[in-house]
Design brief:
36% of the residues lie in helices and 13% in strands. The protein is an alpha+beta fold and 165 residues long. It has a 4-stranded antiparallel beta sheet with strand order 1-2-3-4, with helices on one face. The N and C termini lie far apart (42 Å).
Length: 165
């Protein structure tokens, strides 16, 4: 169920799930271009919901059907990240490196987990086809930072294993 009411903010009458969906609907930073995000941020609140409706309509792979599969996929990814990734003192799960990658690229094809590497720092390697995202938990607190990726435009550091983070 997707709630896309013309509300600006969650209201006390909304269920927690509905309020979360509205928050996720409004959070387009990982799926929109930098230009679109800037345009959205510059709009007055009264115009932001209309912008979002148009944005998500443009993302719909099958616009002639009543269901927007891309929006549903986005909401599911946001929910997964909020439920499965750790919150830190300064970051919500969706603001972490793993959260950003998951929301942007979806679930990886495969995840390799190394609970105790030679340096004693847990790491995860997420595989997306031939591309990899390597995350390391440098302080052992469950906060995984992206240290290397083979995906174009992402952090590239082939000597990540040699560095102390």
């Amino acid at each position: 169920r997707v709630v896309l009411a013309s509300l600006k903010e969650p209201t006390p009458e909304m269920s927690e799930q509905d309020a979360a969906q509205l928050r996720y609907y409004k959070d387009i930073r990982y799926v929109a271009s930098a230009k679109e995000v800037k345009q959205y941020d510059r709009l007055p609140e009264s115009a932001q919901m209309n912008f979002l409706r148009q944005f998500w309509k443009g993302q719909d792979p099958t616009p002639n059907t009543p269901v927007n599969e891309r929006l549903i996929q986005h909401l599911q990814r946001m929910t997964y990240v909020e439920t499965n990734f750790s919150r830190t003192n300064t970051e919500e799960p969706i603001d972490t490196d793993r959260g950003r990658v998951y929301i942007t690229y979806g679930p990886p094809d495969e995840i390799e987990r190394d609970a105790s590497s030679s340096e004693g720092k847990p790491s995860e390697i997420w595989h997306y086809g031939r591309n990899q995202f390597i995350f390391r938990d440098s302080n052992g607190l469950g906060v995984y930072r992206l240290v290397h990726s083979t995906y174009p435009g992402e952090v590239y550091n082939p000597e990540w294993q040699l560095q102390t983070y």
